[in-house]
Amino acid sequence: MLPPGGGLLWLGLVLASVCASVGSAAPGDSAPDALNVLLIIVDDLRPSLGCYGDKLIRSPNMDQLASHSLLFQNAFAQQAVCAPSRVSLLTGRRPDTTRLYDFNSYWRAHSGNFSTIPQYFKENGYVTMSVGKVFHPGVSSNHSDDSPYSWSIPPYHPSSEKYENTKVRP
């Protein structure tokens, strides 16, 4: 069972395994038989899905996706703070090598212009896109969610205003 807050890292492990399987693609190769990659990053997901045995949560689409995917049972946090953790996950580098420990430093300027995993896919013929919070918003992602480096199209941030005062449970 995943520790509380382990959902983001679980998904990071999924991405790492997918990247390992497509790492042999030739640059610019967009052959029709190239693997599709779907990375879903969710804050604080926990193992609250049917595929992890939760009987209360109904998640048929995620359960079906999990039934055809590699399902990880363990997760590890690379940093206790969101922005450094996301940069570590998305660059494949440990936080001590990115030297990012806060929300107030743009990692490309502060620690080095490292390639990101989505940037790698983009440079190898994949269309990459970001919906919602992938990089931590604000200074740590240069107020751009690392666009245009990592993304083929500008990131999309849907409004969450309509959920502000919504009940979580009946």
From TrEMBL:
Gene3D superfamilies: Alkaline Phosphatase, subunit A. Residues 1-25 form the signal peptide. InterPro entries: Alkaline_phosphatase_core_sf, Sulfatase_CS, Sulfatase_N. It holds the Pfam family Sulfatase. Residues 36-134 form the Sulfatase N-terminal domain. It comes from the Eukaryota. Keywords: Hydrolase, Metal-binding, Signal. Its cofactor is Ca(2+). GO terms for molecular function: iduronate-2-sulfatase activity; metal ion binding. PROSITE patterns: SULFATASE_1 (PS00523), SULFATASE_2 (PS00149). One of its GO terms (cellular component) is cytoplasm. Belongs to the sulfatase family. This is Iduronate 2-sulfatase. It comes from Physeter macrocephalus (Sperm whale).
